[in-house]
Design brief:
three-stranded antiparallel sheet, binds glutamic acid, Glutamyl-tRNA Synthetase, domain 3, mainly alpha, Arc Repressor Mutant, subunit A, three-stranded parallel sheet
C-alpha cells in the first residue's frame, strides 16, 4: 500500500446533504487536500427502501455547490453486493465466520430471555461450533462472524482517543443475511478496503460500529484504516440539532444567500480551530487543517455567527468574483429570478459598479438582492413606507431644487460631479446635506437605505436619475 492519504465521504442517499454531512465531507476533503491525497465518494445505497436517485442527485449537487470535489466516479455500495457476498463466504471457508440457521422464533426467544435477565439482546452462538452437516435441509442461513468472546477491542481514534469495548458486548453479528444481502457493517469494511481508504473520518454516532468493523478487519487480516470520529453538531442551546437550529439541507443555505466559502469556513470552525483565526479562506483551511486538532466535545451551531462570517467574506471578496457567485445563485434566492430575467450587459455593469457600496450593507446574498433592487425597478418606483415618510412635506420642494441642480451638470455624469452640484445647492439654500440626500435617496431607490446617494446617481446614469426624481416632484 502506498503512503498516499485516501479519505472518503460515504453518505446514505435517503435525503438531502444536511449540514452535518457537509461538515463530515469537508473534514475528509480538507484532510485529503492538506496531505496531497484523494477523497473518494461512496453512495451507501444498500437500503433499497429508503435510498433514492433524487437524494443521490441532491447530495452531488450540494457537494458541487460547496466545491467539495471527489476523485474518480462515485462508488455505489449496492452494486458491490456480489463482492461483499464473496468476502463473507471466504470468511466461512477460513473458519472465521459460519452459517447460522436460527429461526426468527428462536432469535426472538433469545432476545426475550436476555431481556428477562436485564442483559442487552445478544446472539448466543448456537451455530458457532456446529457441523455444517447439521444444517436444516433447503434452508439458507445467514453468515455470522466469530467475534472474540473475552478481552477488549480497542479503537485508537484520532479524535476520541483510545476507546475500549469489552468483547463480551460484541456478539457474533450477521455479515450476510440469509437472502444473500450484506449487512451495512460488512459492506463498509469491504468497500473501505477495496477502495484503499487510509483514513476514515465520520460522525461519532459510528464509533461503536468501529469496534465491530475491527472484528471484520482482523478476521480478514486486513489493515484497519486510521479512525477519526468527529462530534455531531448540536443546536446553540446544546440540544440535538433540529430544523429550527439549522439541521437543513445545504441547498437551504444556498437559498438563504450564504457563500460556499463562508459556509465552509463556518463548518470548519465548528469543532476545529487554528489559533484565534476566525476568518479563513479555503486555501488557509487546507494549509492549516489537521484531523488531530478536532475537539471531542459537541459543536454548537449558531446562525448569528454564520451570518456575520458571511458578511465578512462578502466584503473581502473581489467584486467581480462576488458578482459571478451572485449571478449564479440568483435562481435560488427569493426575488432572484426576477433580477436574473432583467440582467442584460448594461445592468451587469451597473451592478458591478454598485457592488462596493451594496456589499457594505449586506450580510447575505438575499440582502444583496434587496439592496440591488433599485437598479432593476421600473418607473414609477414602488416606494416603501420609510421612504414615503422621507418624501412628504417640504421634501418635494427640496427635490425640485435638487433636480434642477443635477440637470444643470454640464460635464460628465459622475459621483463627484453630482456631489458638487448637490453640496452647492444645499449650501445656497441653507440646507443640511442630509435634508437633500435623504429625499433624494428615497426618490432614486424607493428605500430609506442604500449605498451612498452619489454612487447611486452615478450608477443609474443621468437620464434614469433625473426621471426618478421628477416622478416624485409632480
Ligand atoms: N453511510 C453512513 C452515514 O451516512 C456513513 C458510514 C461511514 O462513514 O462509515 O451515516
Amino acid at each position: 500500500m502506498s503512503d498516499k492519504v485516501v479519505t472518503r465521504f460515504a453518505p446514505s442517499p435517503t435525503g438531502f446533504l444536511h449540514i452535518g454531512g457537509a461538515r463530515t465531507a469537508l473534514f475528509n476533503w480538507l484532510y485529503a487536500k492538506h496531505s496531497g491525497g484523494k477523497m473518494l465518494l461512496r453512495i451507501e445505497d444498500t437500503d433499497r427502501e429508503r435510498s433514492t436517485d433524487a437524494a443521490t442527485a441532491a447530495i452531488l449537487d450540494g457537494l458541487s455547490w460547496l466545491g467539495l470535489t471527489w476523485d474518480g466516479e462515485p462508488v455505489s455500495q449496492f452494486e458491490r453486493a456480489p463482492r461483499h457476498r464473496a468476502v463473507a463466504e471466504e470468511l466461512v471457508r477460513l473458519g472465521k465466520a459460519y452459517y447460522c440457521y436460527a429461526t426468527p422464533a428462536e432469535l426472538e426467544a433469545m432476545r426475550e430471555s436476555a431481556r428477562a435477565k436485564g442483559l442487552p439482546p445478544r446472539y448466543d452462538g448456537r451455530w458457532r461450533d456446529r457441523d455444517p452437516s447439521e444444517a436444516p435441509v433447503g434452508a439458507r442461513g445467514a453468515i455470522r462472524i466469530k467475534a472474540p468472546a473475552d478481552g477488549e477491542t480497542v479503537v485508537h481514534d484520532r479524535v476520541q482517543g483510545e476507546v475500549r469495548f469489552p468483547n463480551k458486548d460484541l456478539d457474533d453479528f450477521i455479515i450476510l443475511r440469509s437472502d444473500g444481502n450484506p449487512t451495512y457493517m460488512h459492506a463498509v469494511v469491504v468497500d473501505d478496503h477495496d477502495m484503499g481508504i487510509t483514513h476514515i473520518i465520520r460522525g461519532d454516532d459510528h464509533l461503536t460500529n468501529a469496534a465491530r468493523q475491527m472484528v471484520i478487519y482482523r478476521a480478514l487480516g486486513w489493515e484497519m484504516p486510521s479512525m477519526a470520529h468527529i462530534p455531531l453538531i448540536h443546536g446553540a442551546d446544546g440540544a440535538k440539532l433540529s430544523k429550527r437550529h439549522g439541521a437543513l439541507g445545504v441547498e437551504a443555505y444556498r437559498a438563504m444567500g450564504y457563500l460556499p466559502e463562508a459556509l465552509l469556513n463556518y463548518l470548519a470552525r465548528l469543532g476545529w480551530s487554528h489559533g484565534d483565526d476566525e476568518v479563513m479562506s479555503i486555501t488557509d483551511m487546507i494549509a492549516w487543517f489537521d484531523i488531530g486538532d478536532v475537539n471531542k466535545g459537541a459543536a454548537r451551531f449558531d446562525f448569528a455567527k454564520l451570518e456575520a462570517l458571511n458578511g465578512v467574506h462578502m466584503r473581502r471578496m473581489n467584486d467581480a468574483e462576488l458578482l459571478d457567485i451572485f449571478i449564479n445563485t440568483l435562481p435560488y434566492l427569493e426575488g432572484g429570478p426576477a433580477i436574473a430575467a432583467r440582467l442584460d450587459d448594461t445592468r451587469k455593469a451597473q451592478l458591478l459598479a454598485a457592488l462596493p457600496g451594496l456589499k457594505e450593507r449586506a450580510k447575505t446574498l438575499v440582502e444583496l438582492v434587496d439592496g440591488a433592487a433599485f437598479l432593476f425597478a421600473e418607473r414609477p418606483l414602488p416606494i416603501d413606507e420609510k421612504a414615503a415618510a422621507l418624501l412628504g412635506g417640504e421634501a418635494r420642494e427640496i427635490l425640485r431644487g435638487a433636480h434642477a441642480a443635477l440637470k444643470a451638470i454640464s460635464g460628465d455624469w459622475t459621483a463627484a460631479a453630482a456631489e458638487a452640484a448637490i453640496r452647492q445647492y444645499a449650501l445656497a439654500g441653507g440646507l443640511k446635506l442630509g435634508a437633500v440626500a435623504q429625499p433624494l435617496r428615497a426618490a432614486l431607490t424607493g428605500k430609506s437605505t442604500s449605498p451612498g446617494v452619489f454612487d447611486v446617481l452615478a450608477v443609474l446614469g443621468r437620464e434614469e436619475s433625473l426621471a426618478r426624481v421628477a416622478d416624485q416632484i409632480d
